[in-house]
Inverse folding.
């Protein structure tokens, strides 16, 4: 089965555009930086810059002799954006990390239980930003888009769409029917015709317009599929690696453990989040962590001036670790299993022998213990842990995770492209009418072998003892800084 697809991943920090074919070959890929405008609580990007970068990336591929006469275009990207449009023009994209909207969170018409029954999630994971936009800037927009990739689709085809994965995080979609649920936003002043059309990831959103064709070089009339938010795309991309019916762990700036699920389980302890899965009737259960790569990055800056390689060497310096030294990584508060936005990080058990090298390694251990808590909570039993995200670039971290989990850790050599592969699977499935599994398999790169890291079994007992200490100490952080 063959086809050529253009796949784009518009993330928070970069846009990646690639051409790949059903033989698993990446014919070419181009990356462009994405700029975030930060001012206090405001975190915004400029949709027109996204479009410029997309056009530039396409033209760069073309200049390398890679034909853009593809069978289809599929995009993925950051979720939970709010992109208000007025007369077809989007001045700004308010990012998921922008907290201005949280002030707009007011009473709902529905009970918390009713919201959870519709959305599959805690009522707080709702539409504060949307409400804020409706209240503060009612005349400044006539409709809205929710994802960066949806803006690319809008410019390519003129269609306003949203996929069910990203639809989940708006808090306005019924996770069971994958349709907008008006009762969820009743009283907010928002009307249904201001929302994009919800489509399945493999449905055609529209066809490349003449104007978009002259900007990008993609022939007019090329089908553009709806695609899906990056949370779903990474899950699809990861689904063909190792034991992935059992899920994977993500170690980017933040972290999470994700597993596919057939049912919803609202947890009392910790905050499970559910996304609608690409597959209808299925879900992705996610246990999020606020602190992961941000903590690693802080440690690298603090001890090694931002030099990742120097930090790797520093963690390798100590011959052994003091049995009492622990690091609790809650630099920005935490959500799992301790739910406390005021919690902060701490070193515990320091004695006169502790060096910078010990402390650096304790940071990695603390992150691995924290990640393991989400893994255990979510109930995965796989013998191999598939690890995704920028944190996998650190050899020391990969090894520490393997040692703490006492499981083999598997990392894709092309993990930065997993979301793009996942998006492309939607186009492949649309064209070949095959299963999700077959589509994901066809659209993974046949390039390099995965990296496998095996655990050091001699550390098992000591790390299990430390893990018990960590669980006890981390639990005591809850409420500690409440006053
Ligand atoms: P995001 O979730 O923002 O997309 P990434 O997946 O890019 O994040 O991961 C960012 C994290 O990757 C950083 O916080 C850092 O921990 C880690 N990282 C980035 N570059 C390196 C590197 N060269 N070596 C080791 N770790 C790295």
């Amino acid at each position: 089965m063959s086809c050529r697809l253009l796949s784009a991943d518009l993330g928070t920090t970069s846009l990646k555009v690639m051409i790949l074919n059903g033989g698993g070959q990446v014919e070419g890929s181009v990356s462009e930086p994405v700029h975030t405008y930060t001012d206090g609580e405001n975190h915004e990007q400029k949709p027109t810059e996204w479009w410029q970068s997309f056009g530039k990336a396409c033209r760069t591929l073309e200049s390398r002799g890679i034909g853009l006469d593809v069978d289809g275009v599929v995009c993925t990207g950051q979720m939970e954006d709010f992109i208000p449009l007025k007369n077809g023009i989007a001045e700004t994209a308010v990012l998921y990390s922008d907290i201005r909207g949280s002030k707009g969170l007011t009473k709902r018409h529905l009970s918390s239980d009713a919201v959870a029954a519709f959305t599959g999630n805690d009522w707080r994971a709702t539409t504060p930003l949307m409400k804020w936009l409706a209240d503060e800037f009612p005349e400044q927009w006539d409709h809205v888009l929710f994802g960066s990739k949806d803006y690319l689709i809008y410019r390519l085809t003129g269609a306003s769409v949203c996929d069910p994965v990203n639809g989940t995080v708006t808090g306005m979609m019924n996770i069971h029917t994958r349709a907008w649920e008006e009762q969820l936003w009743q009283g907010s002043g928002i009307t249904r015709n201001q929302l994009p059309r919800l489509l399945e990831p493999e449905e055609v959103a529209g066809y490349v317009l003449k104007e978009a064709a002259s900007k990008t070089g993609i022939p007019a009339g090329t089908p553009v599929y709806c695609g899906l938010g990056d949370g779903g795309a990474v899950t699809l991309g990861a689904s063909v690696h190792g034991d992935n019916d059992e899920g994977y762990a993500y170690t980017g700036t933040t972290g999470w453990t994700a597993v596919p699920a057939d049912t919803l389980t609202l947890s009392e302890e910790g905050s499970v989040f559910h996304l609608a899965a690409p597959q209808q009737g299925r879900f992705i259960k996610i246990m999020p962590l606020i602190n992961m790569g941000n903590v690693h990055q802080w440690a690298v800056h603090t001890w090694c001036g931002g030099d990742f390689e120097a930090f790797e060497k520093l963690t390798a310096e100590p011959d052994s670790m003091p049995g009492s030294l622990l690091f609790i990584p809650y630099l920005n508060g935490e959500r799992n299993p301790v739910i406390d936005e005021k919690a902060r990080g701490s070193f515990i058990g320091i004695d006169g022998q502790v060096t910078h090298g010990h402390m650096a390694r304790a940071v990695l251990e603390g992150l691995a213990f924290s990640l393991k808590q989400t893994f255990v909570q979510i109930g995965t039993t796989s013998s191999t842990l598939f690890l995704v995200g920028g944190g996998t670039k650190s050899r020391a971290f990969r090894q520490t995770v393997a040692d703490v989990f006492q499981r083999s850790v598997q990392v894709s050599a092309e993990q930065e492209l997993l979301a793009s592969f996942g998006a492309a699977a939607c186009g492949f499935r649309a064209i070949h009418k095959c299963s999700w599994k077959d589509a994901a398999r066809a659209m993974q790169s046949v390039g390099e072998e995965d990296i496998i890291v095996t655990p050091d079994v001699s550390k098992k007992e000591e790390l299990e003892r430390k893990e018990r200490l960590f669980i006890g100490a981390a639990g005591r952080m809850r409420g500690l800084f409440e006053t």
The chain has a mean pLDDT of 90. Residues 11-13, 252-253, 293-294, 296-297, 308, 389-391, 393-394 surround adenosine-5'-diphosphate (CB under 6 Å). The radius of gyration is 22 Å. The longest helix spans residues 356-378.
